[in-house]
Amino acid sequence: KFVEWIKDTFSTSKRDTEVPASKIFLPETKLIKKAVCGYYKVKEEDLYKIRRGIENEARDMTIYMIRMHCEKPLLEIGRDFNLKKHSSVGAVIERVKKGLRKDRKKKKRYEKLIKIISKRQTEI
Q1: What's the angle, vertex CA 96, arms to CA 95 and CA 101, rounded to 5?
Q2: Three-state SS across the chain?
Q3: Using CA atoms, how far apart are residues 23 and 31, in angstroms rounded to an integer?
Q4: pLDDT by residue (tens digit) across 57-96?
Q5: Confidence at residue 29, expressed as pLDDT on a 0 to 100 scale
Q6: What is the pLDDT of residue 3?
Q7: Handedness of CA 36, 38, 41, 44 (dihedral sign)
């Protein structure tokens, strides 16, 4: 029960630089991808598709969540999602941030995803 409380309390927040062991509470990218695919009802392959001019919210949300909650470098995320430049990853992250500020429904979807990930993480 104590471990569950610790994971619930610290799992989705950023790693504390003064507590090196806090890194173990960060979610894995696989967990985020699985949660997003389940929530948006898409296949994992759909997260890697790039279609100019067409929004792929599941993909954008996955990239944003990996950056914010797994602390992966932009280049590593870009390689994983077939993006050639780290600036493309940065543009996705800024687009999601802006969307979360302006769109309440998108923010609620994001919060639901955080809850799903936290819940699955405590099951591990």
Answers
A1: 100
A2: CHHHHHHHHHCCCCCCCCCHHHHHHCCCHHHHHHHHHHHHCCCHHHHHCCCCCCCCHHHHHHHHHHHHHHCCCHHHHHHHCCCCCHHHHHHHHHHHHHHHHHCHHHHHHHHHHHHHHHHHHHHC
A3: 15
A4: 999 999 999 998 887 889 999 999 988 888 999 999 999 9
A5: 85
A6: 62
A7: positive
Q: Could you give the CA distance from residue 87 to residue 92 in angstroms, rounded to a whole number?
A: 9
CA distance 59 to 49: 8
Look at residue 34 and tell me whether its pLDDT is greater than 70. yes
Confidence of residue 9 (pLDDT cuts 50, 70, 90): low
One-letter amino acid of 81 = F
Could you tell me the pTM of the whole model? Answer: 0.77
State the CB neighbour count (10 A cutoff) for residue 88: 17
